[in-house]
Amino acid sequence: MSEYQLYCFAQSGNAYRAALMLNLIGAKWRPVWVDFFAGGESRTPTFRSEINEMGEVPVRVVDGGKRLTQSAVILNYLAKKSGVFEPKGEDEEMEALRWMIFDNQKVNGFIGPYRFIRNWAKPTPDQAVFNFLKARIDGSLAIVNKRLEKEPFILGNRPTVADISLSAYLYYPAEEFGFDIRKDHPAISAWLDRIKALPNWAHPYDLMPGYPFGTQLLNGKPLS
Ligand SMILES: N[C@@H](CCC(=O)N[C@@H](CS)C(=O)NCC(=O)O)C(=O)O
User: Fold this and answer.
1) Are 166 and 99 in contact (CB under 8 A)?
2) Phi then psi dihedrals of residue 100, to 5 deg
């Protein structure tokens, strides 16, 4: 029996943070597919009253019903529980949190909407919106790249929740972004390879259901 359920869908980089963490720590978990695109499930009154009042995925549910949302909260909970990717001591905890907030707000907080409006929003917004977001993305990724020129991981020599949070979105295909993050930011590229080499790493489209669109399949098989 799985210890955790994760409400998610394959295209969600926010959900992928939590799915990747669960996989990397070897947790027993199973995905629950959220029909985000066609069904608008996260906007329904039922989802908001019974699953997450914020209308977002990921949502991590422990068998028995206890729920957690916000990927940073989920990552920190799982790190504490497993002892894996856990920042050690108050200074590291604050440092990890600092980067996770920066990620949520300014790195993937801009990359996520950019990728969404480029691939799925109807009608497609004006070019000015893309230009604004892209300038913010370039500036934020340059900050992360500079940090990673000095150390192999965000907090130093070992990966922590800050690395899982910041890296997850960046594994989606470059064609979905329309720019090549690895080419533009070489230290980020080398860091993505280091995280990808960790045991149990898996691509978002292999780890969460809903790719291709509108299916409850995971790797071509129905969800159990
Ligand atoms: N800060 C949140 C962001 C969650 C989030 O925005 N998830 C997207 C899916 S990738 C969502 O559910 N969006 C619904 C909406 O904005 O209406 C986290 O890290 O969990």
Assistant:
1) yes
2) -70, -35
* 14 CA from centroid of ligand 1 (Å): 6
Task: With beta carbons less than 8 A apart as the criterion, state whether 61 and 117 touch.
Answer: no
Amino acid at 106: K
Segment 114-154, tens digit of pLDDT: 999 999 999 999 999 999 999 999 999 999 999 999 999 99
Q: Output the CA 150–ligand 1 centroid distance in Å.
A: 31
The identity of residue 47, as a single letter, is: F
Q: Measured over all CA atoms, what is the biggest interatomic distance in the chain, rounded to whole angstroms?
A: 49
Report residues whose beta carbon is within 6 angstroms of any ligand 1 atom: 12-14, 42, 55-58, 70-71, 104, 112
- Entry pTM: 0.96
User: Ligand 1 centre from 60 Cα, in Å?
Assistant: 13
Contacts of 213 (CB under 8 A, 6+ apart): 37, 38
